[in-house]
Amino acid sequence: MTEFLQHLVNGVSLGTIYALIALGYTMVYGVLKLINFAHGDVYMVGAFMGYYLAGFWRLGGAASAGGGATPGSVVRAFLITAASMVVCGFLGYVIERFAYRPLRDRPRLTALITAIGVSFLLEFGFQLNFRGSNFPPGPTPRIFPTLFEGHDTGWLSALGVNLYTTDLLTLGVAILLMVLLQWIVYRTKFGTAMRAVSFDHQVAGLMGIPVNRIISWTFVLGSALAAAAGILFAVTRPRIDPLMGLMFGLKAFVAAVLGGIGSVPGAMVGGMVLGLSEEFVAGYLLSSYRDAIAFGILILVLVLRPSGLFGRTTVEKV
Amino acid sequence: MRFLRVVAAAALVLAIGCSKKESSEILIGHVASLTGSEATFGQSTDNGIKLAFEELNKAGGVKGKKLVLKTLDDQGKPEEAQVAATRLIVNDKVTLIIGEVASSRSLAMGPVAEKNKVPMISTASTNPKVTLDQQGNTLKYVFRVCFIDPFQGTVMAKFARENMKISKVAVLRDVGNAYSVGLADFFEDTFKKMGGEIVTDQSFKAGDQDFKAQLTKIRETNPEAIYVPAYYTDVGLISRQVRELGMKVPLMGGDGWDSEELYKISQGALNGSFFSNHYTTESPDERVKSFIEKYKAAYGSVPDALAALGYDAALVAADAMNRAKDLSGPAIADALAATKDFKAVTGNITLNEQHNAVKSAVVIAIDNNAGKYAATVSP
Amino acid sequence: MAFARGVLRSVLPFLVGIPLLLALQTFLDSQGIDYWTIILISIGINVILAVSLNVVNGFTGQFSLGHAGFMAVGGYTTAKVALAFANGAHGLTQQAAFGGALLCGMAAAALAGLVVGLPSLRLRGDYLAIVTLGFGMIIVSIVENVDALGKAIGLSGLPGLTNVTWTGVGAIATVVMARRLAVSTQGRALFAIREDEVAAEAMGVDTTGYKVRAFVISAAFAGLAGGLIVHLLQLATPRSFNFIRSFEVVVMVVLGGLGSITGSVLAAIILTVALEALREFQQYRMVVYALLLIALMLTRPQGLFGTRELWDLPLVRRLPWMRNRAAAGPAGAPPTEVRGETDSGGET
Asked: I need a labelling partner for C199 at 20 to 30 A (CA). Which of A59, A277, C255, C273 fits?
């Protein structure tokens, strides 16, 4: 029972991060039908932005005791996260403007290749290092500063399960962001426009919707979410390196597909399913086949439900 | 025709790349993963070699000639390592080739070195097969300056049984990494032979960020220690997650742990743990001290094991070239094979008949978030 | 008559190619320029990979990301067979054994293609992509865990039998296969599926059947490339078949132009040479490569040749010795439908 509960806690903690990144994939896919392969790397940049900003902040001499959940450190963590989200949002805008927009009317695979190009550029660009310079970080992993000291809540210690405040924080922030996103997509004018664009670019344009601006904002939003995910992840697992988004981004994409790509609740559920299934596979079956079985589950789900758990089945007409 | 221009530019770069070498210089090739998921190891090794070359050249070079290093990137891929090795040997006509860190890439380079009769010194490829051909005969031109897996796995198993006096160990290995798999296998063999018990054998893959599933499983088996033969890049994170799950047992590992970064990531989570290594930074030995100082001055960080091995590979190569009767491949290979008791940073290196470095290992205990010498284990 | 011509067109490239390749190899061996040999072999292997993936991604319009997995199946099978039969043998026997081993590898990869293709080809677009990617990862994962396949280190000590001739023959075979496929009924069906799957089905094309067949053919040639790679390296290791490898092949196909065989060939050559030329840049290499990729894609979004072949380009058509052909075939074929009649009409 202890083991099961612990796996459950671990799985949810992992699944939340998958879900946050998957949301970015799903939003971009929704409006553009494009797999933004650079998204995992935006997540990486988000974590690094947090790293640099935290370093800068400390140099700036803000009186912080460091660690501990003092009000000051919470504000600081919040500001760093917000700043990193802004920077990555801008990065997302730049990527869309220069790498994807010129190819919007081309076959989708074309934009996929520039996406891979942008992804390589970010990964290998961050792997460069110049002597005496702190940026780019180079390939050696960096240690993410403690924005928020995690400790065992002790709530489940009677059961022998460790539940960390950082896990709860991650979960809380993730849920908050998802609710916010759901509100934006379904309750605001921008969201309505976004859904219209995802339905049909041309018609949306004819209806007076500024298609380009909507798509740009979608990228900004998705990238900002990735940045938040990067920082939340780095708080609990404080090793960041330029390739951290490669495999993790891919898995998040799998989560998005699993949930039905293009669907916001689908991304959340997909992330959770992937996180939990990985956790339980590694815990109860064979950890050496962790990725294999996780992908096996994905294949099984897709074969049974070809458009994912929450995907709309589109009827093709001639 | 835009693409023709691209091709022409590429050809031009290729042509410039094939420049002639000066006769007053000895060109040494190095194949390393300067980019890709293992870039940090390749760059460390390259730094170590560069440092050694600077020193050697200051001291007058080899046979009155200056040593020149040419490093080519292989992105961490075996195919690329083979091409890079061929390019260095055939086009640049290097006298000797250093590399690679990973066994899979050294295995791809070995046949090239052998065919062209150019000696190759692997810095950190620990798989026994690297210096052997398919029949198990030693390759004449392939050498290494590191331990092989059977030795290092045995060291830690012995230490666990005899010094730590424990009998139940869990293993957590990196299933995609030959180094990790090799060490884990030999550790398990020896440990079981000595009457110990492996309670569970779990796997992860390098680059994973979350190990709690495997660690929760390990926690259920109540081991007295966990053997994690992996690189410091992963171990730091693993150690933190071990503590987050409330386990207080020590961790054990191999030379892949040796890096200052490990302590920075683990932040005390590894106190009470042990790992086997080539040398200890507290060594009173002048060579070790000066190496660490110079490395710090040049690169601003404490050298990891791979930098030390790169440095030693360069020193061993220079020593052999000095002793060789001329600078031809066979002569250097003979001199390399005769390397005996060479005083290097990572210990006194003797190359045995399988061209493996025979040197004693030290066990480092981690205390107060720093490594302390604990014991020496001789082969 | 048409049949005889077809056979001739399939065989002729080999009749011309094999002696040339043997001559080239003798020349390269006599000069001791291994470096160029290895570059040529790399190019050849990449041509095989790109052209074979083009059959699925370009001809059929399905998006597969599982090429590396099929390479692994082919590579390991070839390695196992070659270790058993070709290692002790010498001379021609050894070469024959190697040829047999390569065929075994192709067969195994084709079988894997069938196993993967049957369930997954009812999925479309990105769902198919992610499932094929998943299969590729599962295959590598299995390889890493099976003792008989050497786990993480793989199978070492393989005979180094891959040479310019074997690779060249493989590349010719792949190109001939793709070309013959493109002008056949089967190829027509594949193009129909690419243009509009529903319409194709309505016209009586057995879409699933054709898709699976295209997938199997493509997988078989990926297996051939895998077999050649492991015997070039003399090592079969899971690291050679990382999922990044699948991406690299997709990049070649798209860069060359989806559906264009000559485009794939040219893209494979350019990318292989470019990466090699950039090696001098050390850490900056991949950054330059990434920029090159983005720049190429932005300047030629349809790929180097679009869906057309080399000889359909206006520039080539204007060459004096091509005039005949251009005049004989109906010029100005519709952009997506330039294979088939246009060319075969011109070649008579």
From this structure: C255
Residue B348 near residue B312 (C-beta atoms within 8 A): no
- Establish, for the pair of chains A and B, how many residue pairs have beta carbons separated by less than 8 Å: 107
The contact set of B with A (CB < 8 A) is: 35-37, 39-40, 43, 175, 202-205, 207-210, 212-214, 216-217, 219-220, 233, 236-237, 240-241, 244-246, 261, 264-265, 299-300
pLDDT of C309 above 50:
yes
Decide: residue A189, CB within 10 A, 0-12 exposed, 13-18 middle, 19+ buried: exposed
CA nearest to B310, candidates B23, B40, B95, B18: B40
Closest CA to C210 of C227, C232, C183, C191: C191
Burial of A97 (0-12, 13-18, 19+ CB in 10 A): middle
Residue with tokens 């896990």: A167
Does some domain include residue A40?
yes
Q: How far is C122 from chain A (nearest CA, A)?
A: 8
Alpha carbon distance A146, A234 (integer Å): 9
Whether the CA torsion C262, C268, C269, C270 is positive or negative: it is positive
| Residue B375, min C-alpha distance to chain C (Å) | 31
Total tally of structural domains belonging to chain A: 1
Closest among B349, B251, B317 to B94, alpha carbons compared: B317
Task: Give B163's DSSP letter.
Answer: I
Nearest to A248 among B209, B240, B261 (CB): B209
CB A294 within 8 A of CB A276: no
> For residue A133, is it within any domain?
yes
Separation of alpha carbons B57 and B67, rounded Å: 6
pLDDT tens for A111-161 read: 888 999 999 999 999 998 887 778 888 888 888 887 777 777 777 777 778
- DSSP line for A48-61: HHHHHHHHHHHHTT
Please give the pLDDT value at position B5: 55
Q: What is the DSSP letter of B92?
A: S
Sorted by sequence, the CB contacts under 8 Å of residue C296 that are 6+ apart come out as: B6, C255
The DSSP output letter for A152 is: B
- Partner residue facing C238 (CB), from B11, B129, B176: B176
Distance, CA of C337 to CA of B151 (rounded, Å): 64
What span, in angstroms and rounded, lies between the C-alpha atoms of C81 and C62?
32
Phi, psi of B320 (to 5 degrees): -65, -40
Among C35, C160, C292, whose Cβ lies nearest the Cβ of B86? C35
- The radius of gyration computed from the CA coordinates of chain A, to the nearest angstrom, equals 20
* Structural domain harbouring A129: 2-304
Identify the band that residue C91 occupies on the pLDDT scale cut at 50, 70 and 90. Answer: confident
Q: Which of A116, A257, A286 comes nearest C247 by C-beta?
A: A116
Q: What is the largest CA-CA distance in chain A?
A: 66
Which tens digit of pLDDT belongs to each residue from B220-230? 999 999 999 99
CB-based contact C39:C272 (threshold 8 Å): yes
Cβ separation A10–B212 shorter than 8 A:
yes
Calculate the dihedral angle through the C-alpha atoms of C292, C224, B178, C144, rounding to the nearest 10 degrees: 110
Cα separation, C176 vs C162, in Å, equals 20
Pick from A204, A256, A199: which is nearest to A229 by CA?
A256
Residue A122 lies in a domain: yes
Its sign, for the CA torsion A162, A166, A170, A173, is positive
Over residues C29-42, the mean pLDDT reads 85
For residue C292, what is the nearest residue in chain A, using CA coordinates? A117
A304 in contact with chain C, both atoms CB, cutoff 8 A: no
Q: What percent of chain B has pLDDT over 90?
A: 64
> Do C268 and C49 form a contact (C-beta atoms < 8 A)?
yes
- Supply the angle between the helices C207-233 and B78-86 in degrees, to the nearest 10: 40
Give me the count of residues in chain C.
348
